[in-house]
Amino acid sequence: MPVRDLQYPTEPFSTVKRHKEQGSYSLETIHQIVNSCPMLHVSFQPPDSPFPAVLPMIGQMGSFARPSADLGEVLDLYLHGYVSSRIINLTRDDPSSPGLPMTIAASHLDGLVLALTPNSHTYNYRSAVLFGHAAVVTDAAERLYAMELITDGVVPRRWAGSRVPPNAAELGSTSVLRVTIATGSAKIRTGGPHDERADMADDALRGRVWTGVVPVYSVLGAPVAAGYNRVAPVPGYLEEWRNETNKDTEEYAREKAVDKS
């Protein structure tokens, strides 16, 4: 564990400007948001397009050189992709460059914050943005490390609970990108609604408009077995993770719906 809270450097393009008090540059905070997000949105600029491209991808923060590294340490982002996809091909165009520039966004919605007026409505949320350069992983050991990291990032212990290692055809159709992070930032909003002083002084308004927070959290449903499944009951590691995740996400959303004095 790092002896201090490491921070990403602030750059003009990464600095939180509105509600600066909600911003964070802590590596641990940012990496936790990214690693707990089931879908990342990755943007890059194709040279043959007038518009940036955005792809939903799965990925995880980790360190091949230091597999036991803490979330608060310097980590790379590994992304899973199809071997001949556009984003993979673009990273191969200039192997001497630092890599394909990209921006990665992760977001969690934790609550609907309902105020006295529409203009004061907001969300409770956690969001993180990373900026870095992507390169295709060519080392076989690092690629297997990243594939296991990403798989277990979706469902912990699933890699060991499935047929591994991947066969030659699977390895031939799959590529992994390593994104070396230059900087990043997070923005987090918690608590209840905050209304204008004039509205708070309007007793009639406060007497007819409900205010508060509707907690929002994902629920992992009961597993549905495949038609050809021969394993019963559901593996313990899957049920334990599902129950713990459901409990934690609900508790977080409800806890963050209340203002802390």
Automatic annotation (TrEMBL):
<dbReference type="InterPro" id="IPR012349">
    <property type="entry name" value="Split_barrel_FMN-bd"/>
</dbReference>
<dbReference type="Pfam" id="PF12900">
    <property type="entry name" value="Pyridox_ox_2"/>
</dbReference>
<dbReference type="InterPro" id="IPR024747">
    <property type="entry name" value="Pyridox_Oxase-rel"/>
</dbReference>
<protein>
    <recommendedName>
        <fullName>Flavin-nucleotide-binding protein</fullName>
    </recommendedName>
</protein>
